[in-house]
Automatic annotation (TrEMBL):
Keywords: Heme, Iron, Metal-binding, Monooxygenase, Oxidoreductase. It holds the Pfam family p450. The lineage of its organism: Eukaryota, Viridiplantae, Streptophyta, Embryophyta, Tracheophyta. SUPFAM superfamilies: Cytochrome P450. Heme binds at C93. This is Cytochrome P450. GO terms for molecular function: heme binding; iron ion binding; monooxygenase activity; oxidoreductase activity, acting on paired donors, with incorporation or reduction of molecular oxygen. Belongs to the cytochrome P450 family. Gene3D superfamilies: Cytochrome P450. Its cofactor is heme. One of its GO terms (biological process) is lipid metabolic process.
Amino acid sequence: MHYLHAAITESMRLYPPVPLNSQSCLSDDVLPDGTAVKKGWFMSYISYAMGRMETIWGPDCREYKPERWLDVGKFRPESPFKFPAFHAGPRMCLGKEMAYIQMKSIVACVLERLAVELADKEARPVKMISLTLRMKGGLLLRFRKRSARH
């Protein structure tokens, strides 16, 4: 389950469910990198771009590598300010752990029973940015039952 947790997290690093966000500052504050933000200012961040920044994730930042989240086979989380899929600080998503439990249980149940493949291996999904990141026309998949184990 550690590898599955890492695989899901790596997917959200590259394809965050909420690809961009804006906040307004209620009082003067300082960001983790030392940048001052004044009361009344609006600030936007683009987690989609952050997941692809070499300065944050290294030279392999565009590669899908679940192993980057593992330390001797165990899941190792990053700072939520580096990986903001569930936001950070006092606005951190309260449902984060429940979301991971649900994602991991669904993936494990599906993959235990079904083999999954792209319906069209040549198709390239077109991303659409809205409140949430989604694919134009969805992602067409083909499922087949796995053979019974002996």
